[in-house]
Amino acid sequence: ALLTMKATVLATFFGVFLTCTYTAKEAPKKTKKAKLYVPQIDCDVKAGKIINPEFIAKCPPGCQDVKYRVYGTDIYASFSSVCNAAIHSGIIDNTGGKILVQKVAGHSGYRGSFSNGVRSLSLPRWRESFLVSEGKPRKGVTYPSTLEYSPSKSTAVKSGNVNVPTGDAVHKEYQTTPVPTPATQMATTTPTPTTTTTDPSTTTPAATRTTAAAAKTRPGLHRVRDMAFRGTSTSASNRNILRHSTGVQRQDPVANFQRAAGSPAHLAMETDSWKPGQSLFDTGFSSKEEFNPKPLEPISQGNQNCKVDLSFLMDGSWSIGKRRFQLQKRFLGNVAQALSIGSAGPLMGIVQYGDDPSTEFNLKTYANSKDLRNAIEKIQQKGGLSNVGKALSFVNKNFFLDANGNRGGAPNVVVVMVDGWPTDRVEEASRLARESGINIFFVTVEAAAQSEKQNVIEPNFVDKVLMCRTNGFYSINVPSWFSLHKAVQPLVKRVCDTDRLACSKTCLNSADIGFVIDGSSSVGTGNFRTVLQFVANISKEFEISDTDTRIGAVQYTYEQRLEFSFDKHSTKQDVLNAIKRISYWSGGTSTGAAISYASEQLFSKSKPNKRKIMILITDGRSYDDVSMPAMAAHQNGVIAYSVGVAWAAPDELEAIASDPAKEHSFFVDEFDHLYRYVNQLIQNICTEFNSQPRN
């Protein structure tokens, strides 16, 4: 019995032992069998968007695309697309697959390379990096089954004078010293802007640029900007420029937008003056209306087959004499009658010149021939020399304005009455007027008197100044004032022949102009408004409508945003208001990508009969290549102008600009000096236009 009891106890003990052993072995076996759930991510997800420091994720097929940007080689900036970086590194191919991502510290000098069909770009510095490898879990590491993303929207938290956004924002590092030291780095954040393109699929990812690992410098400019404050505050004290060569801190100047001293007085266009205390948009965006007497007679529709805006330059010099001056007035009255003045037909104003020109009345003063003839009869002779050149400059700058009744869609025509010969130079003033789109006719009467010949500066001025030398179409020579009446019908027929007015299709009404605007962090809010004023001052010089010049705009950082397309706004005021509404973005500088984007989103939709003009404004070196996108744009007929500010790279400006580069690229050392090139840029556009063959 004792033996039987012992055997039973041993059997029971052995059974319990086997059960415990089996259970202990089963537990790890079950753990090993537990499968890890791998979350899937989209192709455009950037490492910086995912908060988890280490994770395994699955990439879908089709991530090998240029719009999913990658920065770096082996070590990637967290601004990169995770999946496209994995393709670049060879971990997966375009069919997708699992990847392991490990976040690491920020890196300097991310190296760009082309690998596995993906172009990875270089980057000077970024706040965070990541490594990508095969999607196998590391021993002892627990991986999340659900990834944690940073919020998609951001809110601004006001901190002192600096608005610090939070949320879906990538931190930026700034330095105010040329040598990067961690102690001097300041972290801020920038909100991700809303993309406003009409085709969301073409919008590339949002981006922010780290702008001051080392200060961007130009040869001879020993300056470093306080990037952090310039990018986030509009106060003058926060927009300082440090001159290390002198140790002097210079306050940002008041935006006093005035013509540069010594700038040529003969330039065709004037920019508005900015005055201290005045809003950047108080000038340049609207025209001041002039008070003019209302017509005495009912408004006439006029000859609708002759819709032109006419300015007669009336010779009021002493050389013409009183009797011939009366004959001239009679001639002008007969022309007004023959034209059939009216709101839907020709409109006519008169400028009298002698030593100096002055407007007798403008285009909207009289709206019928009868009142106009009566007004002409009351004009008194001014006297003085025959300064035709000065009169043409005056008309070019002051006469054909919206406030004076200029209608935009009607050709601008100037008829110059000359008794004998001008007493100043006419060629340059005529060239500038032509380049502004003005058709110039000359009615010359008699030859210079013997006493006048000593004052004649350009004996063959008619041959020099005529726009289109088409068998004398733009010139009428009358041998005597007493036979001037015979020229009424020939002149009226010519000015009304709008099909033959070669200048009716002018540099100011025949282009699609796309502005490509750098919105990177280094620009700063205040300077960005200065750039917009520059864009507005250029735009307002053009005749804007559906059938004339059209304006479009793109803003870029690392990504691009279509602010408005060519067909969005059809009036000048609407365009200027749209420019005013553009909000500062802030971020990096991918100029090459911006050129490609503008080519696709703006200029591919340009009308066949329009010249395609791109005006790109940037303040720094691009993080991607600009030469290939610029070359592609040039080959597609885009005329490119580049405007660089401060730290813009001269070699990139030249690569962007059309040939010859010296006529298509400009540089200023400060944003407040941009206004200096408004006139020059428009003049170059018009010079190029007038050098091309006419249709």
TrEMBL record:
InterPro entries: ECM_Assembly_Org, LCCL, LCCL_sf, VWF_A, vWFA_dom_sf
GO cellular component: extracellular region; interstitial matrix
N-terminal signal peptide: 1-23
Chief place of localization: secreted
Entry-linked PANTHER family: COLLAGEN ALPHA, VITRIN
Record function comment: Plays a role in the control of cell shape and motility in the trabecular meshwork.
Designated name of the protein: Cochlin
